[in-house]
Amino acid sequence: MPVMNSAERVLLAGSSGFIGRAIARALEREAVTFKKADRRSGIDLCDGERVQAIRDVDAIVDVAGPALPQLSWDAPHAFYRSSLLITLNLLELARLRGARLILGSSYVYGVPSYLPIDEGHPANPSNPYMASKLIAEQLCAAYARDFGVPVTALRIFNPYGPGQLSDFLVPAVIEGVKRGAVTLRDPEPRRDFVHVDDVAEAFVAALRFPHSGFEAFNIGSGSSKSVCEIVSLVMRLSGRTAEVSYTSESRRGEIADVVADVSKSARLLGWAPRITLEDGIRALLVEEGR
Q: pTM value?
């Protein structure tokens, strides 16, 4: 695997977010020089003039923007505007500075035609969040084609880990088990959960990846667990029991099962997930004293 030049200057857009914080930790371990960019650092990534004024950048990591898919049904304009405008501004910065861009994308395949899902599977977004990510990828492909900006898109399946909001399944289940009562919608949907530290290592691997043009990679674990299996796993690992109930509601745009084929990531990026779901949840329980 190529070794990343520690003198390379990386702009980390979205550094205060769940995934951004994990990437920052990984870059610090690699002794990579990087600059944080988000509202907390005083940079409005939706402001093209402010973004284009940034100097001294060789690579850009884009993990900025809202990240709770179900909210995109209620606020589609905010999701589309943020995702597309930020990515467009960062692509223009990459064009002006001769930099590479690593895009934090998402699962974009919708209801799968087959499992596991490889990168050649047709994209068919099932909510506005996915759609905004796919359009961002299309912008990236256009800048790669028209201006020679190298772009790597990482299609992150279902990340979990320390610092994730309780709106997401794994922290919601942990909180519910702690209280002794878990109320969820549907026990059946299955998802491919990947630890945020493994996701961060995928970004480090992508920064090492020498290529031109546009490339997309799946980032997942290669297996899936159902909602009820997550509940059972948390109870077993925590040694707690809880009253579990389901409302029998299906989320809008629900998908029965997703499993990532990560063989391309292994072959070209030299990346593979290392943290099992059991170990990841066990670490969360230990960290939070449960």
A: 0.96
